[in-house]
């Protein structure tokens, strides 16, 4: 009888199979059998299996009709002769020392070792000139860096992570019923792969008498097989597996830590369905499946996990259950003075915070028009809940392929206010600020009011106004006690040609439009416009207006960016990993280039060349500064650098022509000496980023070392030890909501 039986369920993996079987053949531990199951393979997999069996009789070929991963593994468990069971996936491979190392921890003085588990590598095949690459999974980072043994109730950490049943070996008698429950452990016989390793993982980990852990990585888990079973095709599948695991766990005596780990797994799977795999959580069936999961959770225990769960998971849970919304009921205004348009798409992670802030408005006669571009998350569901109670909210839904032109057209067809603002959904602007902006727009009867806190170009604007006979030099002098600064205007774009187009981008979305002015002229957003600034729309409006004003709001300024951000790794692996939330913002360079074409078509490019080139320089450098991976930086430069450099012609115009000196200096650095100076600029940027990180780390360290922090930390820990868990959960919920606010 062999010591280990290795089960390999095989279906159409000829590309990777030889590497897998060869890694088994060269094991330094020799006493094994390998049961190779062709699960109805239609490619050359069976021939590869037969070739290994012909050379080494430890390999055994079983050719059968297709039954799926679970049923195939079960056949292997019934046929296995070994004392220990290993399951290897045919597109992966293993270290030559894997079985020798694992079997070195097969005995214990504290009980029977049922599972011997190690860590593993995430393996990426090389491409586009890159060699193969490895990443360490979170399991390795969170588990002990030494050999240890435990039960799951004693140490629940493995239950937080990927099942990785293939990086472990299992005592066959344990699987056949020699366990705490006297239960035969098998896979669910589900067609296909079906994530059937999940219930198997739960049953084995919970029922094991002792689990031996080795920190070494002996299994190579391939991430780049396009046909891998980990790629989700049916959104019901993870919910089915969670339901099966939940039913099993409900019959077992598990610790709170194990329960928390399972909750974390449920959150991970929900996020995978609606984030990584892109299914729409507006779908009623998906929402019912998510609600089934959330209804099964003990709310108190979820809130007690705030130190372990990612904050966005807790926020999503509270938002989905409708427990975190603070919606203030208001009636629909008969004649709103200000229409606030929010263009949304997949804004789940911050949209509740924005809607709550706006729902608190009491004294501003306004309406909120939400125009959604086919969000695949819960954005629209949240918006509907606010609209049901706060009648100032109106929701318009367009498909995901709707253009920016169509989104803005829908918004303008819906708004009823005298004035309109387009505010990005991840910004919150205070009611006091909007009241001041509305007052300034009304007072000047302007077509467009640009909002600012001071104005670096005020001397230029004042000079233009004095030349037009508006006011005296003294009338534009501010006093410290004034709550608001001066109003500069009215202007037409041709009054301030050196500033008009640059102001379009500099003021971004900080524009209050007269609604009738927009509608009467039939302005359209450009197809390249982005929601953060709508530069094409703004340029058309600026060229048409005779009444543009700049409002210095001074002490009334209150604007916050509440977008949650996450940055992917700066390496090609980030291209393989789907990152649903990223801090790499949309670039507006295409919109700026479109504005340039519009100016040329209208024959006014020469008039506005200086302000346009300043807008182009700022846009280009912003786009470059906010690309984070080498690939994205290279792509951006390859696409835009030559065209922008030719248009800017900095040799002709010189430094004094451009307003943003930092942007100009950086542009010189990346163009002056070719690749060498570009590399130096990138190094300089990286060092500046590191300095910022070090500075923040130092500030945090100083806070943690402060007496006030330590006293507060001790007080909180004391409360957690002695206060009822329900009280701790309530306190943590309030703290989380306070952080969000």
Automatic annotation (TrEMBL):
Gene3D superfamilies: Spore Coat Polysaccharide Biosynthesis Protein SpsA, Chain A
UniProt entry tagged with the keyword Transport: no
Molecular function per GO: hexosyltransferase activity
Entry-linked Pfam families: Glycos_transf_2
Keywords carried by this UniProt record: Transferase
Residues of the Glycosyltransferase 2-like domain: 5-110, 339-455
UniProt entry tagged with the keyword Transferase: yes
Identification of the protein by name: Glycosyl transferase family 2
